[in-house]
Amino acid sequence: MGSTQAFGDPQSDWHKDPSRAGEVGIDTDLSKEQPTLALPPEGGDTDWPYYNNRIDGDRYLPLTEINRDNVAGLVEACRVHVSGAGPFSAGTILVHGVIYTTAWRSTLALQPTTCDVVWKALYAPEQPEVYNANRGVAYWNGKLFRGTGDDRMLAYDAATGRELWRTRIGDPTTGEYLAAAPLAWNGKVLMGTAGGDLGVPGRMLALDADTGKVLWSFDTVQHPDSSGGTWPGTTWKTGGGATWSTYTLDSQTGELFVTVSNPAPALDAKIRMGDNLYSDSVLDLDANTGKLLWHFQIRKNDNHDYDVSAPAVLLTIGHRKVIAVGSKDGFLYLIDRGKHRLLWKTAVTTILNVDADPTPEGVKVCPGAKGGVEYNSPVYDPIEHVLVVGAVDWCYNMFKTPYAPYAPGSPYIGGKMVPAGDSGTGWITAVDAHSGQVRWRYQTLAPVIAGITATQGGVTFAGDTSGLLYVLRTRDGRLLHKVETGGALAGGIISYRSHGHQYVAVNSGNVSRSSWGAAAGTPTLIVYRLPETLAAERDPSALSPHAESGSTVFHASCAVCHGATGQGGEAAKLAGLSSRYSQAETVHLIVDPRPGMPKLYPGALSAQDVADVAAYVRTLPP
């Protein structure tokens, strides 16, 4: 199963195309076919174990084989259709040499270098589904976990795809469903409910990873018996406040960070006058008990459908623990974890009338209902000290209109938003993590809602809903490469090292409300890598360094500017470098030099020379 053609063949494809199954959304059952055995990982291989790579939410990778000098040479290694035409907005994870992803009712295990299917499991709904998009899976101790459109949590054996347990979370007839990618940690599966725009009050839950038993539940809409009273009357019962992406966790403290979406009805704030906690907020919960530790509300009494749905990113800037989070209101926020206060906020798309009330005649607002930062977080590059975030630039006209009272399972919007143009565009923006100032921005042909990934190779990967994969130089936003994938990019873009080489895997092809009116395509996982001629150049950061050899190279090529003992002169002081930079980060400074420093690799220095010099300069005492 999952045979592929020769490496580098752009027509390489899976021999069975589920898109031919007929109707849109019809899947193909492959679960009865003989599975392909997964190749065991090798030394040096890397995982992408969470939706955002790390449990703290950061998608940055210390990989350099694919870098700013060679990324234009990327070729397609393999591709596989994962389902018939339908939604494909899931993130992708890679654990122990196997890729896992979801496409509507399908959960798949795939080879990371050949796209061969290891196994595929199909879920048959027990009740009518509310919504059919899914953000992906979580992994824990040999098990995979995902939610369903009819409000079930499922556990699978990660090796075989056999279902281990299922738990009904709630009642889908009220409009509640599960769309987010869960987070698995410390024997718990952490998951929140969706359906807020149908008037379902949100909840966050923890389930036992072995049994599926619910361990605790936290209501993301504040009840009247809580302090504050931020919802008038019984409006909290239909208050929204759902979650529909994934979550972030501090594994040292056990703090779970949950981003909560808009209140309901989305466009009528007067019916629910008050702060409407905990809508449009970041929550800090004790992952072991579900107790609320603190919260930060980004927007009170929201009447623009401005969800805070993208997961938070946990960072340390200087000596300060902070949270970076994007919102559909079009801003990127940096929040102090210790003092629970805003440090800065920066616009990352067009901003207009974000505080205006809807009118019967209509008022133009930017971003609109499908604008701003959607359900994927920024990435933090620790070398450039920037947060890079994708956003949608799409204005809407917002109208105050009569609407029906709340009815279970029906949209509860409270007005109308209509696109002010035929389609939106997108932005990829780099923001200085210290100051909040925009370093650079790049406008894309179509909305950017897919994952953003940056690497130590000095490149940032992003994609838009027209089907384009972009590779930008992280330092200044220069476009280095662009690939037409053939389908809307609305989910995962990940990178990893497998069997000696670095790869980039992209989820392409999406037909859902996340398509944003652009290219659709058939749900397809596509894997890229460098051709053998480029990949043959070794990765300096992966080599074993020899500081003694580095001393010789340093004094021949570097000491004239940096000083014989690294004391500085015409160039920067290097003495004491080891306290500020790791070996891999020092390699990057040589491979991708700052302005004013000559570029010696590749050319004057070999890959081994770079590794050796980096090791030597890190021995220089302060």
CATH topology of the largest domain: Methanol Dehydrogenase, Chain A
| Largest beta-sheet details | 4 strands, antiparallel
Question: Helicity, in percent?
Answer: under 10%
Helix-and-strand structural type: mainly beta
Count up the domains.
2
Output the CATH homologous superfamily of the largest domain.
Answer: Quinoprotein alcohol dehydrogenase-like superfamily
Count the helices. How many?
Answer: 5
The fraction of residues assigned to DSSP E strands is 25-35%
What is the C-level CATH assignment of the largest domain?
Mainly Beta
- How do the strands line up in the largest sheet? 1-35-34-33
What is the name of the CATH architecture of the largest domain? 8 Propeller
- Gyration radius over CA: 24 Å
Question: Low-confidence segments, ≥5 residues, pLDDT <50?
Answer: 1-34
Tell me the span between the first and last alpha carbons: 58 Å
Gross geometry: globular
**Tally of strands:** 35
Mean pLDDT: 89
